[in-house]
Design brief:
The chain has helices at residues 19-27, 51-59; strands at 2-8, 13-18, 37-38, 44-48, 65-71. With 88 residues, the chain is an alpha+beta fold. The protein has one domain (2-80). Strands 3-4-2-1-5 form a 5-stranded mixed β-sheet. It starts with a strand and ends in a 17-residue tail after the last strand. The mean pLDDT is 92.
Length: 88
Amino acid sequence: MKKIIKYNDPGHGWYRVPMSLAREAQAKGVEFTGYSYQSRSGKYAYLEEDCDAARFFEVMPRESFQIVSKHTNNQSSIRNYPGLGEVS
């Protein structure tokens, strides 16, 4: 079972998934919005919790993952990462 971390700040949340899984979901027809980000290294995608994560979990069953939540009371640095389509 693969572990996914869900990061939350006071205004929003993102699921951190390996970029390879995000690309696999895209190959299955999932299109992500501009509200998802990727790590500067390009190793992880941070899928926004509403639309993008829901689309991801439609093709990658949630039961396949262990989800662990982390919360900060400050604005998350994820908001400053490049958009999912900005780095290749």
